[in-house]
Amino acid sequence: MSWRMPARRAFGVGATASLIGWMALPRLAFARQHDLTVAQVANRLHAVPFLLARERGWLQDMAGIGVRGFIGSSEGGATLRNALAAELPYGEVSLPAVIAAIGQGAEFSIVHGGVQAVSDQIWVVRRGETSLKSPRDLAGRKVGYTAQATLSDMVSQAMIDSAGLAGRVERKVVGPVKQKLAALRDGTVDVVMVAEPRFTRERDWLRPVWGADEVLGPCVQTVGVVRSDWMLRHGEVVRGIIAARRRAVLAIRDEPAQGALVVAGHYGIEPAAALAIVERLLAGPGFWSDGAFDQMGMETMHRGMQRIGALPAASPSDWRGALRADYLA
Length: 329
Description:
Layout: H1 15-20, H2 25-28, E1 33-38, H3 48-55, H4 58-63, E2 66-71, H5 76-85, E3 90-94, H6 95-103, E4 109-113, E5 121-126, E6 142-145, H7 151-162, E7 170-173, H8 177-185, E8 192-195, H9 198-201, E9 206-211, H10 212-216, E10 222-226, H11 228-233, H12 235-254, H13 256-267, H14 271-281, H15 295-307
Parallel strand pairs: 1-2, 1-3, 6-7
Antiparallel strand pairs: 3-10, 4-10, 5-8, 5-9
Helix pairs in contact: 3-12, 3-13, 12-13, 13-14
């Protein structure tokens, strides 16, 4: 399956141009190919609805934009800055990066919900390790996490606190996923958190013990943002992107096999395993938001950032003022 779809002609020339008139000019300006910014697009499942929407031509049809591909780094602040500086200054980016940027005075609009759960994150041990079955079994153990002020930092701290094991568990910074798994394999740590689809790729030697969602509950990971001044001039493009993404999310909910084809093709996962991933992520409220804001889940992320010192304890929820639900219509 190809993930670089050929560009479509959004509008014609000559006589056709005289029919569309001046009202179509904002959309016409974006008919050429663009890259959209989506956090963690290379190694996480955040972008699945966008990939499906591009494959089906919905982004072209509903937003009037040709999408060449997707870009995004594993560093939330960089992804947000890249999105807002792009020619099409929109992206689905890390909520912690958004909250931090707004707290520092950055101005932009939050126009839709994105990934509304942490159900892609799984705590794992080495296969053969049978004594760890719940967070209550972590006393005297070593927990690995990526780095300070990361999701694994947040979840590991919440996990230890909720189990009543503060001061009885050693937390160790072990780096990104490759180093994290190496630390688990050689016994430097006893348990680490790994996201899909990496867990499925490594499942032959890993045993899942509990999910991050069992620790945090509903928690929003990403939101859609756009530079506000650009949005006021190109509102129909913003609404079209949101509508195309929503159509893809609803299509995946109705027929999980559609999402599984995307996961299999883009991430190199065997089809049956890809379907199992998608079906699991659709459980409960679902992994991919249809665009609606889950303010409770956003508050959970905000409090988690305060817990690990990524935000001041008294930091107000300034991000509420950046929400623009009117673009969800």
